[in-house]
C-alpha cells in the first residue's frame, strides 16, 4: 500500500531542511483545511519561499500541490486516520478544546441543516408504525446500530440488529415487507459488499433509511431517506458525536409519538431490571408528567 502523506512526512522529517519542516508541520496541523490554501498561502503562512514548498512536495513524492490536495481529499473520504502534530495543537492554551468544540458544533449544524422537517417526521412516523425495524451496520457503523436499537426498543417492540455474529444477511432480509423499515448505518470505510446490500434493499418492499457520512451520497437515490452526518475531527480519528446526537433525536421522536405505550413499556422494563438485579438502583426517577 502506498504510504500516505503523514507517513511520508514522518519517515523523512529528520532529513528535511528547517524551512521544509515548518511547511510539513503546518500541513499536518491544518490537514483538514488544505483545500482552502494555495501553495502561495503555505509559503506566506510558514515564512518560506514558494520554491521551498514545491521542493518539499517533490521530496514527498507529489508532482504538485494539486496532487497533495487530491491525496488529502481521498484520505478523508476513505476515513484513513492521519495523526496531526500534537505540539502544534498545543501552541495556544486551550486551543485544542476550542477547535474541537467548534468542529463538533459545525458537524451538528451541517447535519441538522441538511434534514428536511418533513423527511424527519416521515421517518419517525414509519419507525412508530412499522411491523419490524431492522437495523444494519458494519465495522465503525456497528456500535451505532447497536445503540440505535437499544434506544428504540425502549419505546417499541420488534427492533433487531442484523446480522448476528457469524451469520449472513440473506436470511434476515428475504422476508422484508412493505410494513417494515430498515435503518442502515453506512459510515466510511464501508465493506466492499455495501453497494450490493443497498441494491438488494432497494429491490425489497421495505423502506430504507441510510444514516451515513457525505461519502455515501451516491446511495441517496436508492433509499427513502438519506441523513448526511459529518464525521470530521481535528486529527486522526473520526468523531461520531453528531451521529449519536441524531440517534437520540430520532429515538425521542418515536417515543413521543407513542408516549402512553412508551411510558408503560419503559416502566415494565425497569421493573424487570429490578427483578433481575441487572442495573444499579436509580438515584432519581423520571417525571413523566413534565413530558
Compact description:
This protein is of the alpha/beta class and 291 residues long. It has helices at residues 5-12, 18-29, 39-46, 50-59, 65-78, 86-89, 95-113, 117-129, 142-152, 170-173, 194-203, 241-257, 259-276, and strands at residues 133-137, 159-162, 181-185, 207-212, 225-228. The protein starts with a helix and ends in a 15-residue tail after the last helix.
How many strands in all?
5
Number of helices: 13
Q: What would the average pLDDT be, to the nearest integer? A: 83
Strand % is 5-15%
Level of helix content? 40-55%
Give the helix/strand class: alpha/beta
Low-confidence sequence ranges: 83-91
Query: What sequence of helices (H) and strands (E) makes up the elements?
Result: HHHHHHHHEHEHEHEEHH
In whole angstroms, how far apart are the ends? 54 Å
Query: How much is the radius of gyration in Å?
Result: 24 Å
Largest sheet: 5 strands, parallel
Query: How would the global form be characterised?
Result: elongated
Strand order in the largest sheet: 2-1-3-4-5
Protein name: MurR/RpiR family transcriptional regulator
Domain HTH rpiR-type: 3-79
InterPro entries: Homeodomain-like_sf, HTH_RpiR, RpiR-like, SIS_dom, SIS_dom_sf, WH-like_DNA-bd_sf
Pfam families: HTH_6 (PF01418), SIS (PF01380)
Amino acid at each position: 500500500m502506498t504510504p500516505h502523506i503523514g507517513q511520508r512526512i514522518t519517515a523523512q522529517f529528520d532529513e528535511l531542511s528547517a524551512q521544509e519542516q515548518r511547511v510539513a508541520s503546518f500541513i499536518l496541523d491544518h490537514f483538514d483545511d488544505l483545500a482552502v490554501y494555495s501553495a502561495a498561502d503555505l509559503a506566506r503562512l510558514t515564512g518560506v519561499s514558494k520554491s521551498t514548498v514545491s521542493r518539499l512536495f517533490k521530496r514527498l513524492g507529489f508532482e504538485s500541490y494539486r496532487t497533495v490536495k487530491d491525496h488529502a481529499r481521498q484520505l478523508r473520504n476513505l476515513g484513513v486516520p492521519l495523526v496531526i502534530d500534537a505540539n502544534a495543537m498545543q501552541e495556544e492554551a486551550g486551543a485544542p478544546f476550542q477547535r474541537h468544540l467548534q468542529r463538533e458544533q459545525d458537524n451538528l449544524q451541517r447535519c441538522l441543516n441538511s434534514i428536511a422537517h418533513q423527511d424527519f417526521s416521515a421517518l419517525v412516523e414509519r419507525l412508530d408504525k412499522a411491523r419490524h425495524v431492522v437495523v444494519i451496520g458494519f465495522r465503525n457503523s456497528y456500535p451505532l446500530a447497536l445503540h440505535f436499537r437499544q434506544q428504540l426498543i425502549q419505546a417499541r417492540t420488534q427492533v433487531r440488529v442484523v446480522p448476528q455474529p457469524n451469520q449472513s444477511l440473506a436470511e434476515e432480509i428475504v422476508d422484508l415487507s412493505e410494513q417494515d423499515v430498515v435503518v442502515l448505518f453506512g459510515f466510511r470505510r464501508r465493506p466492499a459488499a455495501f453497494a450490493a446490500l443497498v441494491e438488494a434493499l432497494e429491490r425489497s418492499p421495505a423502506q430504507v433509511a441510510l444514516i451515513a457520512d457525505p461519502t455515501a451520497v451516491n446511495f441517496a437515490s436508492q433509499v427513502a431517506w438519506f441523513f448526511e452526518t459529518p464525521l470530521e475531527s481535528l486529527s486522526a480519528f473520526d468523531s461520531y458525536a453528531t451521529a449519536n446526537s441524531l440517534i437520540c433525536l430520532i429515538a425521542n421522536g418515536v417515543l413521543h409519538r407513542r408516549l402512553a405505550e412508551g411510558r408503560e413499556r419503559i416502566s415494565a422494563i425497569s421493573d424487570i431490571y429490578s427483578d433481575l438485579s441487572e442495573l444499579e438502583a436509580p438515584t432519581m426517577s423520571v417525571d413523566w408528567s413534565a413530558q
